[in-house]
Known about the structure:
Strand order of the largest sheet: 2-3-1-4
Number of helices: 2
Number of strands: 4
Radius of gyration: 12 Å
Largest sheet: 4 strands, antiparallel
Amino acid sequence: xxxxxxxxxxxxxxxxxxxxxxxxxxxxxxxxxxxxxxxxxxxxxxxxxxxxxxxxxxxxxxxxxxxxxxxxxxxxxxxxxxxxxxxx
Length: 88
């Protein structure tokens, strides 16, 4: 299953990638659901879970249009317990 959102057309050169820790253990379907939900956010450029560390998701977003706290809120808004680890 593809768990990454590919780059959005005309993406800004001003992107930042953050790591978010998901507290729950997520199966493949729930991980896919979260990636799909994040893909609906026009400010998020990509999202992918770390291989073999499925509790960590890397999210790249346009820093001119969003913030790390807004990205974290997008994850929490999908009813996941999560915390921001920080930028890469």
